[in-house]
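Mods, move this if it's the wrong board.
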Amino acid sequence: MLVLVGTIASCSPQTYGGGDLIIASKDFTEQDILGELLAQHIEQTTGLKVDRRPRLGGSQVCHRAITYGKIDAYVEYTGTAYTGILEQPPIADPNQVFHNLHQLYAQKFNLEVMPSLGFENTFAMIIRGEDARRYRVNTLSEAAQYTPQWRGGFGYEFLERADGFPGLAKTYHLKFSNPPQIMDLGLIYRALIQKQVDLVAGNSTDGQIARLGLVILKDDQHYFPPYEAAPIVRQATLAKYPQVKTAIAQLGGLITSAEMQRMNYLVEGEFRDVKEVVQEFLQSKGLGSVKQ
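Not the wrong board. Structure tokens:
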């Protein structure tokens, strides 16, 4: 708890360069991109100055920071917010999830859940392409018969959360010879390719999946709830700067899953600068300023 409090305290507005609002992101590449996307578009369309707070932490840390008023906005995934923050049982209907989330976040936290940016980033159970071909598996149900021979590698959050591994293992009767390894999310694909593990929990829009020839096992039992990327904004911030709501609304439905996966790859696979990748994407949609 001391670490969490310290992390939140460190993102106090006083630690920034006098911006009008602070946009944070969670601690992985896609979030770096989405945070920068919000920041650039708000700056370009409103004239406000945005301070960035990338890699703030996981969902709980970002949620605590925004409810304490230490940040003004970040992008969350609807299923994560619904099951992880609100601790509601998972439901499959994305429209119902968004409706419930929008209502409960306003009532409980004075937070505005904005419309989805257009894509879903769901948990993805991933194996090597060679194993998918060898065992002729495409779904989690088909893979369950082989998991006693496999080694699992998952992030801590996935092992603990309500919509994570415990429920998945129960739904698909997944059993491993040894308990799954707790791994840093930045290392899971390397571990998979180097055959240190055989099944990992990644994200469906990860840029490295196609590049490394990996295969996502289909969630044929529809265990995972929808995980649409939706900006979360303090209502107090929108009241102070109503133009911010208009700016963020312009980003609704803008990004496809394929486009998100490509941006992730440009940053992780080609080591492109996040700001440039975002700028080019906005320009391709007719929203960005022309680079001088």
